[in-house]
């Protein structure tokens, strides 16, 4: 199942804009106009992260973060705000937020933060499930994907992998993409960490 990015903001225009930005990059997104609406649809078993506004009527972003902290296993959170103070930012980061962005949010900056959030969530889920979780994901790979994986985590470029394995560049890109999806990550750095847990030898390709 693909990671889901949950966006929580009481401003419909901001909510829609952030959603369009992330969907344009192929991400699955849910939109919630309040923390209560988000809580009603949130499933802790679904991978991903949360992008939420700091100041909202009723329960604000920090209160929502605290609520999850009290429950344990809080989702990975990225805060956005147009008028954040240093104290609020520091509080959010101390409680585990991966980033604190200022409105209006630059699309590239938002996407980078979300990628880090998805990777952090994937690694946290693997850590909770232990080595077995990483091994299970590795076992979901096809024989060819298992051949490609060591090349990817050793830093080889797609064209180098294609030449090494005698396959087309397009096929290499497809295998690489499917490996990332099956491990639930968006960066090679996160893939390396999970491959290590699964005892994949970077020189084993």
Automatic annotation (TrEMBL):
Modification type 4-aspartylphosphate: residues: 53
Phosphoprotein in keyword set: yes
Gene Ontology molecular functions: DNA binding
Pfam families: GerE, Response_reg
Coiled-coil residue windows: none
Keywords annotated in UniProt: DNA-binding, Phosphoprotein, Transcription, Transcription regulation
SMART domains per the UniProt record, alphabetical: HTH_LUXR, REC
Residue intervals of the HTH luxR-type domain: 134-199
GO biological process entries: phosphorelay signal transduction system; regulation of DNA-templated transcription
Residues annotated as domain Response regulatory: 4-118
Domain of life where this protein originates: Bacteria
PANTHER family: DNA-BINDING TRANSCRIPTIONAL ACTIVATOR DEVR_DOSR
Name this polypeptide is given: FixJ family two-component response regulator
Species name: Stenotrophomonas rhizophila
């Amino acid at each position: 199942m693909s990671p889901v990015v949950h966006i929580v903001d009481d401003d419909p225009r901001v909510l829609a804009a952030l959603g369009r930005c992330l969907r344009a990059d192929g991400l699955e997104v849910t939109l919630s106009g309040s923390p209560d609406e988000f809580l009603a649809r949130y499933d802790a078993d679904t991978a991903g992260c949360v992008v939420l506004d700091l100041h909202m009527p009723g329960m604000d972003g920090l209160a929502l973060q605290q609520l999850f902290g009290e429950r344990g296993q809080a989702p990975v959170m990225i805060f956005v705000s147009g008028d954040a103070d240093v104290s609020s930012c520091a509080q959010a980061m101390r409680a585990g937020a991966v980033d604190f962005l200022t409105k209006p949010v630059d699309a590239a900056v938002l996407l980078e933060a979300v990628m880090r959030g998805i990777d952090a969530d994937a690694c946290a889920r693997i850590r909770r499930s232990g080595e077995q979780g990483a091994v299970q994901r590795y076992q979901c790979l096809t024989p060819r994907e298992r051949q490609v994986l060591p090349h990817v985590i050793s830093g080889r470029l797609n064209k180098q992998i294609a030449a090494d394995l005698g396959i087309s560049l397009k096929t290499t890109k497809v295998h690489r993409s499917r490996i990332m999806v099956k491990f639930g990550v968006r960066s090679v750095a996160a893939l390396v960490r999970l491959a290590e847990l699964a005892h994949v030898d970077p020189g084993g390709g």
